[in-house]
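Batch job 17 of 40 flagged for manual review because the log was empty.
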Amino acid sequence: MRQVAVTGLGAVTALGADVAALAAGLADGRSPLGPLTRFVHGGRCQLAAEVPELAPPAAAFGALRTATIRRLSRPDRLALITIEQALREAGLKPPELAGAGLFVGATVGGMGETEEAYRRHRAGEDRRYRLSRLLGTPLSTSASAAAQAFGIYGPRATFSTACSSSALAIAEAAAAVASATVPAAIAVGTDALCRITFAGFDALQTLDPQGCRPFDRDRAGLTLGEGAAALVLEDIEHARARGARVIARVLGHATTTDAHHVTAPDPEGQAALGALRGALDAAALPPEAVDYVNAHGTGTRQNDEAEVRVLRAVFGDRLPRIPVSSTKAQLGHCLGAAGAVEAVVTVLALDGSLLPATATLREPDPAWSDLDLVPAAGRRQPLEVALTSSYGFGGHNVTLVLGRGV
């Protein structure tokens, strides 16, 4: 099996329009959570991690026609912006992308645009439905637009496994590169806020009106966010041959399923435990090799308890000496984009020797007060190996093991 290198990153989050803004926000622990403005929601929670309005650079649309650009959904646009950033850093151009793979994780698709078309019709602003307003609805449109924009003609797939969607996209992209199916692959996660998602989470009473506080004693739920992230993965020899910088490496990954409940995690975390151990086995690394854990860390009582239980089972008495943090305190829960966003965060931690903070943590739950949860702001610390886990509704678990670049 071939070694898998990360040679390009792209990100658009509530912290800003690119990877540099994300890194700066992680370093200072700034929280961009604020009042929901994208639409009117009459529920109990009015807080979100919104991406500021962006004017995408022309390069993000590549070879797309003007008529196609007009039909793009917000997640499509976010995906294209981050792919262009990642390809630019990797130094890959359209002729070199012909045989590359494209793997996308998402959950919302163009639902926001569909909702708006329905609202306009009900309000009498549109007397008839316009089909063009609905063409960006399917989840697959982000991958289709990216393939057209950048000339990516290799294998293409879109995954929707709730909050682990784009972590799975990264795992499948890495598998395609490692097996020599493709010399390079682009893994993307993209999602935007929409009414039905916001209302659904609020109805489940899983949103914290005061903001997400992962691992805190007084945690009361998550904060929904939006954004996109992209990673360029390559065979490491392919990357070296063309002079690309190896930012990080994908050392291993594993996927499991709880089959426990539609929304609640398995309180014992057995399948999540299997994903973590499986990823370490795939990387041929012992637990002692891990220097940092980027936790799923949603801030719900059930998730945080189950996740800490899994980490204790794997790392035992060493866990208090391993930094564990959740960046959902700053970025919100980006749903289908979360896995890719947090993979980019983990790569930045490895590449910049920066531990991102659990920014809103004030008083840890007594059950894990012994842990190093990196409160307040990020701190500098050399890292060699880190892992990031994503756990989705329905029990979809993915763990990625990442290594520092060489």
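Reviewer: the log was empty due to a logging misconfiguration, but the result itself is present. The radius of gyration is 20 Å. Unflagging and moving on to job 18.
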